[in-house]
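Structure ticket #2291
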Amino acid sequence: MLARIRKSKENCEGGFTLIELLVVMIIIGILAAIAIPAFLSQRAKAQDSAAKADVSTLGKEIATYFVDGVVVPAGTAASGLSVASGRYVLTVPVSTTPAQAAISQDLGKVSANVELINQFYASSTSWCVTVQNPNGDKAKDPGGFKYSAAGGLAPGVCAAATG
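Resolution: structure written out below.
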């Protein structure tokens, strides 16, 4: 009996059967169905990370101005963030006289798709900046990420004068 099986094995050409190939293809298909959605969500998470990095940088720079003791005249906005030529610019008024109007500081490049949404500056303990990224998961409209004097980095949008 074993001799007959050995002889038939020697006569047959080696290879895979159609069933074996189909089983392998089905296993690969199942693995791809599991992996593709996981990879797609990574792109949205990367967009959220860009928004978090931008708002964190902006918040820390604003806090630095207040910690460094920049004197802001009463009744004026403490500072203002703007976007010029794809870069964040922080403008801090230092005097009410025209001779010393403001200090402008380049804070760095704006990340792709990140938008400056909301900001307010009431005092060194009451200020907030919000950004959003429409391509993100948590950073898209109407959400975003805020950085405030009261709470630091957090998801959400700044409410006027509350942080």
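Closing remark: Residues 18-67 form the longest helix (50 residues).
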